[in-house]
Design a protein that fits this description.
The structure is a single chain. The chain has 375 residues and is an alpha/beta fold. The protein has one domain: Alpha/Beta hydrolase fold, catalytic domain (Rossmann fold, 3-Layer(aba) Sandwich). Helix content is 36%, strand content 17%. It contains 13 helices and eight strands. An eight-stranded mixed beta sheet has the order 1-2-4-3-5-6-7-8, with helices on both faces. Strand 5 (150-160), helix 5 and strand 6 (185-189) form a beta-alpha-beta unit. Helix 3 packs across helix 13 and helix 4 (129-143) crosses helix 5 (162-174). The longest helix is centred in the N-terminal third of the chain and has 23 residues, at 10-32. The chain starts with 9 loop residues before the first helix and ends with a helix. One of its GO terms (molecular function) is carboxylic ester hydrolase activity. Residues 85-206, 278-348 form the Alpha/beta hydrolase fold-3 domain.
Length: 375
């Protein structure tokens, strides 16, 4: 596999992807043999990531209206109520444990921003359970923020990868709720935001760049959406999108909305395959805004709070972030955008794990922290 020279530490990335790929193959074998669900292997492996005590934080596992979460409080005495941050981790609701990589991100954010951080582990169930559970936890926290020492007017939603999807979708779901405090901001770290077009420039340019290959993106997304393994060829070609939906969303999901500088590494427009009613029936819930927040109407988008978006040049999801940035700005929502020129998908999830951190990992985290400090 030949990686672009723009990526730093290419050998380390190849080793990381080899380990991930080997794990996926082994997990598939274990599932076929009836030993365990394929993703149980990854969840078990995460248990071996040590969780160290932190002298600067109070950390407790609590219940949020029936949904488990972990709360991080700085030990320093606050001058008043602190800001609150609800963080959703990635993994397509398939991988992970509360001891996963984002544990270290939450600790860093809590300490360096002097905030109360709630880490909601995305449940490992098919759509829409993951979003519903995360929404339940978010509502509980918004209603009871002061009990956690948090100012209800200073609460942000944050997430990386599919966790960014949840943060976006839940923010949209709650924006019209007058019985809840208004969310102060959303922080979206290389989020997945649409499943209609997998031939955008970033999907073409980065189709074979690890760890999130184009085909792997769709495969994992379909497992999360349907709960089963599916052939991805038709979805990759766009055969799952009804003509009326494609026409409606053309103004939002279109390579013409991507700045020309992001097409410099190559882009060829692709005509979608003929519509398949059978395929659509299997995946039609992927057109719901809780799965694809980029499809939300302007009436919802214009009510959203200040937003931070992080994109990576060598990530198939790059253009999802760019398209959402444009939609927010077109609707008058303030956006802070940080683009990682040598970045790839999941680069920030490695923060705090020195052996596998990349040169831009801490830069990503520090940009997020600086944005949160300003809230």
């Amino acid at each position: 596999m030949q990686l672009p020279r723009g990526i730093s530490c290419r050998g380390k990335l190849l080793l990381f992807d080899f380990s991930l790929g080997y794990g996926l193959i082994l997990a598939g074998i274990l599932e076929k043999l009836g030993i365990c669900h394929r993703f149980a292997l990854f969840r078990a492996a995460c248990l071996f990531i040590p969780v160290m005590r932190d002298p600067k934080l109070i950390i407790k596992d609590l219940d949020f209206d029936g949904v488990p979460g972990r709360v991080y409080w700085p030990k320093t005495s606050p001058a008043g109520k602190r800001r609150g941050i609800i963080f959703f981790h990635g993994g397509c609701a398939l991988f992970g444990s509360i001891r996963k990589f984002c544990e270290l991100i939450c600790r860093a954010i809590a300490h360096q921003t002097d905030s109360v951080v709630i880490f909601r582990l995305s449940p490992e169930y098919p759509f829409p359970t993951a979003v519903q559970d995360c929404c339940t936890a978010a509502i509980h926290f918004l209603k009871n923020a002061e009990e956690y020492g948090v100012d209800p007017s200073r609460i942000a939603f944050a997430g990386e990868s599919s966790g960014g999807t949840y943060a976006t979708a839940i923010c949209q779901e709650l924006v019209t709720r007058e019985d809840l405090p208004r969310v102060r901001a959303q922080v979206l770290i290389y989020p997945f935001l649409q499943g209609l077009d997998f031939n955008l420039p970033s999907y073409q340019q980065n189709h074979s760049i690890p760890p999130l290959f184009r085909k792997r993106t769709v495969s994992l997304g379909l497992i999360s959406l349907t709960g089963k393994t599916m052939n991805v060829d038709g979805v990759l070609k766009g055969a799952h999108v009804p003509p009326d939906l494609r026409e409606k969303c053309q103004k939002w999901i279109n390579a013409d909305n991507i700045p020309e500088e992001f097409k410099a590494r190559g882009y060829v427009p692709v005509e979608p395959a003929a519509f398949s009613e059978e395929l659509y029936e299997q995946v039609k819930r992927g057109g719901e805004t809780v799965f694809a927040p980029l499809l939300a109407e302007d009436d919802i988008i214009r009510q959203l709070p200040e937003t931070f978006i992080l994109t990576c040049e060598y990530d198939v999801l790059r253009d999802d972030g760019l398209l959402y940035k444009k939609r927010l700005e077109d609707n008058g929502v303030p956006v802070t955008w940080y683009h990682v020129q040598d970045g790839f998908h999941a680069i920030m999830a490695m923060a705090g794990l020195k052996a596998i951190e990349f040169p831009s990992t801490q830069k990503c985290l520090q940009n997020v922290i600086q944005f949160l400090k300003g809230l």
